[in-house]
Specification:
4-stranded antiparallel beta sheet, 3 helices, 13% strand
């Protein structure tokens, strides 16, 4: 989990989210379309993305931080048990093994 920061871009290594500084000095962050962030808010948004990319279990203390970071960005809190990434992971079904269908015996004359 890490963030590479330059003067004009930030890249979250695990989640792949990025932030780009605009001409007005405000930052746009992937995953937050239409919002303009300060530099510190962009770092917070990418830190949040990195934390969520780890898919922490419901009882993990990371959720305290996740919801604090969300509050800093004026986002509503997430429930650890209904996190979208967790829902996607738990609902992903392993394809069922193909069933063997007996074939009628063929005679060899």
């Amino acid at each position: 989990m890490g963030i590479r920061i330059t003067d004009t871009t930030m890249t979250a290594t695990r989640s792949g989210h990025t932030a780009t500084r605009g001409a007005n000095g405000r930052w746009s962050v992937t995953g937050h379309p239409g919002r303009a962030f300060t530099r510190n808010q962009a770092v917070t948004a990418l830190t949040l993305a990195e934390a969520l990319a780890t898919n922490p279990p419901p009882a993990d203390r990371m959720w305290w931080h996740i919801n604090d970071w969300r509050a800093e960005l004026d986002l509503p809190p997430l429930s650890p048990t209904t996190h979208p990434a967790r829902d996607a992971a738990s609902s992903a079904k392993t394809p069922a093994a193909p069933r063997h269908t007996p074939q009628p015996a063929t005679s060899t004359r």
